[in-house]
């Protein structure tokens, strides 16, 4: 049932990623979305156009929510959620950690997810109820049993300097309770790393739907668990996220709650 959707998503992600890869290292001119640390480039917009054109060619009546161009209404129950270039700051500086993310909701439930890492040519794919793969091989979250043995990931809000709430205190607390914490500058690839068992958990306080939609489905289909930072269901309208291999989820949530209570 989801095969045509998967095919379009994979093809669009690969083509957008190939476009970005050919222009990587050119130091594109940047502009700003609200703050001097929230970057956007013309390449973000052009990669997004590649994806949206591919979707519109096959499914012109589907709704879309895209990071750069916003929401486009549709006539049915399908909505595509698109991040054409997650890790724009990395990309603009020539740091090769960035990704393309495409997800499809059907009647409000995530059904298809594709995350593509152009630098490593890794394509992560998930379909609801059918598992997750990396370049065609089955994906599984890690078996790490305890927070003390885990490697975690996070990233920081673009408005960190003025944000009323950020994850610096959580980072410090978790750094003392796990093996280490990595901030790679791409939530999309951080979540994909949890699905692949490379990270045991990932958390972030404030994101966009396009940052988490595909990664959340990847992790669930790879055997992991995804919630908000309060432990409730993931809310794509105002997403915060804790995503883990399931085994360390409760400990991670408990630590976040301790930090929140101490504020």
Any overview of this molecule?
The protein has helices spanning 3-22, 42-58, 88-92, 168-175, 187-195, 209-221, 249-262; strands spanning 30-32, 39-41, 63-66, 70-72, 78-86, 99-106, 109-117, 122-127, 132-134, 137-138, 151-154, 180-183, 201-204, 225-227, 241-244. It folds into two domains: 3-138, Fructose-1,6-Bisphosphatase, subunit A, domain 1 (Fructose-1,6-Bisphosphatase, Chain A, domain 1), CATH 3.30.540; 147-262, D-Maltodextrin-Binding Protein, domain 2 (3-Layer(aba) Sandwich). The longest helix has 20 residues, at 3-22. α4 links the parallel β11 and β12 (180-183). The protein has seven helices and 15 strands. α1 packs antiparallel against α2, α4 crosses α7 (249-262) and α5 packs parallel to α6. With 263 residues, the protein is α+β, with helices and mostly antiparallel strands. The termini are far apart. The strands form three sheets. The protein has an eight-stranded mixed beta sheet with strand order 4-3-5-6-7-8-9-10, with helices on both faces. It has a five-stranded mixed beta sheet with strand order 12-11-13-15-14, sandwiched between helices. The protein has a two-stranded antiparallel sheet with strand order 1-2.
């Amino acid at each position: 049932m989801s095969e045509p959707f998967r095919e379009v998503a994979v093809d669009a992600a690969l083509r957008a990623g190939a476009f970005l890869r050919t222009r990587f290292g050119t130091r594109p001119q940047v502009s700003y979305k609200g703050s001097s640390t929230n970057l956007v480039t013309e390449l973000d917009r052009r990669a997004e156009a590649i994806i949206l054109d591919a979707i519109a060619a096959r499914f012109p009546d589907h709704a879309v929510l895209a990071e750069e161009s916003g929401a486009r209404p549709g006539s049915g129950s399908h909505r595509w959620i698109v991040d054409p270039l997650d890790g724009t700051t990395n990309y603009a500086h020539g740091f090769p950690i960035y990704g393309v993310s495409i997800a499809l909701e059907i009647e409000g439930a995530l059904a298809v997810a594709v995350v593509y890492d152009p630098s490593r040519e890794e394509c992560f794919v998930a379909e609801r109820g059918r598992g997750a793969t990396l370049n065609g091989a089955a994906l599984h979250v890690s078996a790490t049993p305890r927070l003390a043995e885990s490697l975690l990931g996070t990233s920081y809000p673009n408005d960190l300097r003025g944000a009323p709430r950020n994850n610096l205190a959580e980072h410090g607390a978790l750094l003392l309770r796990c093996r280490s914490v990595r901030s790679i500058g791409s939530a999309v690839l951080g979540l994909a790393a949890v699905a692949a068992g490379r990270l045991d958990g990932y958390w972030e306080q404030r994101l966009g739907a396009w940052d988490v939609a595909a990664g959340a489905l990847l992790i669930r289909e790879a055997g992991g668990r995804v919630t908000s930072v309060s432990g409730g269901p993931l809310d794509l309208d105002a997403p915060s996220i804790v995503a883990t291999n399931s085994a360390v989820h409760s400990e991670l949530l408990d630590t976040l709650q301790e930090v929140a209570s101490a504020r």
